[in-house]
Amino acid sequence: xxxxxxxxxxxxxxxxxxxxxxxxxxxxxxxxxxxxxxxxxxxxxxxxxxxxxxxxxxxxxxxxxxxxxxxxxxxxxxxxxxxxxxxxxxxxxxxxxxxxxxxxxxxxxxxxxxxxxxxxxxxxxxxxxxxxxxxxxxxxxxxxxxxxxxxxxxxxxxxxxxxxxxxxxxxxxxxxxxxxxxxxxxxxxxxxxxxxxxxxxxxxxxxx
Length: 208
Description:
Layout: E1 2-6, E2 9-13, H1 15-45, H2 51-67, H3 73-97, H4 102-108, H5 112-134, H6 137-155, H7 160-181, H8 186-190, H9 193-204
Antiparallel strand pairs: 1-2
Helix pairs in contact: 1-2, 1-7, 2-3, 3-5, 5-6, 6-7
């Protein structure tokens, strides 16, 4: 175990912490690959049969939110709720349009973004966390480009081609973000465990 001095006292990075960090990074990397693959196939081969890419994309973001370290528990729970709502939206879309027609349904009726948008809000939240902690420019790109593309399309202010270009750029930035994380020490993603311990102690106090 590696020991550190935190804001509220010493803490150690355990083997379990390192496994969780590796799981977080791999899950986010799988999600980034799936998103890039989906968009590339959409561009090269058209709208049909994109749904197999959704499975690793949804699962990857869900697992990343399982292992991500965020000091504020309400924020962490909110991102997980967004992910769950987005998954439910994708399930509804698959039921109404059929697996092979999901992309075409979103392209022709942008109101479906209301249903699947929470998932991308969760992904943008991960990007914000990464930028807040590490100040990586690609992370702020992920945070801003996702809502810009989807809200622009939903409002009708962005044509489909511009929305696709923004999503492609975001997917590339997410892939860069995930690749740059692997050489980092595990402690960087774990954060200051003394802060987690302090916040948990505050929650355990009567009346809080």
